[in-house]
Amino acid sequence: xxxxxxxxxxxxxxxxxxxxxxxxxxxxxxxxxxxxxxxxxxxxxxxxxxxxxxxxxxxxxxxxxxxxxxxxxxxxxxxxxxxxxxxxxxxxxxxxxxxxxxxxxxxxxxxxxxxxxxxxxxxxxxxxxxxxxxxxxxxxxxxxxxxxxxxxxxxxxxxxxxxxxxxxxxxxxxxxxxxxxxxxxxxxxxxxxxxxxxxxxxxxxxxxxxxxxxxxxxxxxxxxxxxxxx
Length: 230
Fold this sequence. Notes:
This protein is mostly helical. The chain has one domain (5-39, 51-218). The protein is built from seven helices and two strands. It has a two-stranded antiparallel sheet. The termini are far apart.
């Protein structure tokens, strides 16, 4: 039983390996890029629109609405980053319907890479929204003694993002693999459908948590009370 797509080696030369995680990750990136290009090449502003454009607008407006409800004041600013993360994790789960495919999110290296993207994006958007001095000052709020604790919090939540996504995706794959060996094929099909639903939920949770972290970093803190004018 394979615990990770890292164990599937397609090509190896010395210590250089081309495993399933790399192949399927770049395959998903290529699929998403080509799909986005094909869907957006003939966009229309008229009342007559294609089904693909309608589906795209539903997805984009849905993600944008969710980002606004999380607390991001300008959701379109973060739509490219957070929307891409959601679509990648969701597509990684949906493609499990194809035989021989292994979701790259079942590898700890992939989930760590996604979490590191969030780890970098939080201070990037925080500095862009508040300025460098104000963002750095937030690590010492309300007192300077909180500095090490806030730094530990940044690191620990990044690890939590990676381990949560990896654990949930890997556990679903392991359950299906076990059922395939001890039960008829009908029941594992139901578990595969449940796995698809679980993957979509994990894509939503991962993206929303990333949005929450960015919203906290971009929130402008009021340091001085407003003065009353007579």
